Amino acid sequence: MSSYTTGGEYLTPTRIHADRAAGVLEIDWADGHQTRYDAPTLRWLCPCAYCRGEMGQPGWLDTQPVLTDIQTTLQEVGLVGQYALAPTWADGHHTGYYTFSLLREACPCPDDVARRAAASHTHGRP
């Protein structure tokens, strides 16, 4: 089983740094990987019911809105237990809990983008 599916070091952050002025969230993982999200990419990843939908209904982000600067300005990032981060955005949105699993699996680095593309191709997904 690969480290991508077993958890452990793959899903254990050792450092979380939110540079609000630069609009960047960085996470160093116990396996040595670093994930770096710019604020707009992080906002598009929001997993909350409002943004992603619920009960078969599409969420707000599914409508492909044009995000404003205030909607992509990171004000604060808090921990949720030992499993997630909860960002607060300048527009007041704060209901998205980004699990460490989500943040690692959606890592926008070139290596992880390529890994996901290869896995999608291997499993016959478009």
What does this 3D model show about the protein?
The protein is built from five helices and eight strands. It is an alpha+beta fold and 126 residues long. It has helices at residues 3-6, 39-44, 49-52, 100-105, 110-122; strands at residues 13-19, 24-29, 34-38, 53-54, 57-58, 74-80, 84-89, 98-99. The strands form three sheets. A three-stranded antiparallel beta sheet has the order 1-2-3. It has one domain (3-122): NE0471 N-terminal domain-like (2-Layer Sandwich).
- What is the number of helices? 5
CATH class: Alpha Beta
Whole-number mean pLDDT: 90
What Rg, in angstroms, do the CA atoms define?
A: 15 Å
Helix content: 25-40%
Largest sheet: 3 strands, antiparallel
Low-confidence stretches: 1-6
Our count of domains comes out at 1
Q: What is the oligomeric state here?
A: single chain
The assigned structural class equals alpha+beta
Could you tell me the number of beta strands? 8
Distance between the termini: 24 Å
Beta content comes to 25-35%
Describe the global form: globular
Architecture blueprint of SSEs:
Elements: H1 3-6, E1 13-19, E2 24-29, E3 34-38, H2 39-44, H3 49-52, E4 53-54, E5 57-58, E6 74-80, E7 84-89, E8 98-99, H4 100-105, H5 110-122
Antiparallel strand pairs: 1-2, 2-3, 4-5, 6-7, 7-8
